[in-house]
């Protein structure tokens, strides 16, 4: 599945930050999660020191398997000396990050603009 398909949209801003948005409102299906993880992985692997911003603007639900995929993406980005930031997470989903204590693992911002600052 390519980056321009229905699962995710990737764009590289002039700032050199890979901005990735999710087209799926519910990220819970195992196959969808695998495809999203593979596409993000390809984009990360193509960068020397990836700077990645994941926008959750369209996402209404994340499964625990999706959280596991995000942990894997974070590990992959950091292993290459890069940075990963998350933005625009809805309150219900953010509660999941808090309950699982993942809010302390990820660099989470309210808006894309805030996340882009200081990258």
Task: Spell out the blueprint of helices and strands.
Layout: E1 8-12, E2 18-22, E3 26-27, H1 30-45, E4 51-55, E5 61-62, H2 64-79, E6 83-87, H3 91-99, E7 107-109, H4 112-116
Parallel strand pairs: 2-4, 3-5, 4-6, 6-7
Antiparallel strand pairs: 1-2
Care to describe what's here?
The protein has 119 residues and is of the alpha/beta class. It has one domain (8-116): 2-Layer Sandwich (Transcription Regulator spoIIAA). It is 39% helix and 23% strand. The chain has helices at residues 30-45, 64-79, 91-99, 112-116, and strands spanning 8-12, 18-22, 26-27, 51-55, 61-62, 83-87, 107-109. The strands form two sheets. A five-stranded mixed sheet has the order 1-2-4-6-7. Strands 3-5 form a two-stranded parallel sheet. Strand 6 (83-87), helix 3 (91-99) and strand 7 (107-109) form a beta-alpha-beta unit. Helix 1 packs parallel to helix 2 (64-79). 28% of the residues are buried.
End-to-end Cα distance, whole Å, is 28 Å
What is the share of helical residues?
Answer: 25-40%
Mean pLDDT over the residues: 91
C-alpha Rg (nearest Å): 13 Å
Q: How would you describe this structure in keywords?
A:
globular; 4 helices; 39% helix; two-stranded parallel sheet; Transcription Regulator spoIIAA; five-stranded mixed sheet; 119 residues; alpha/beta
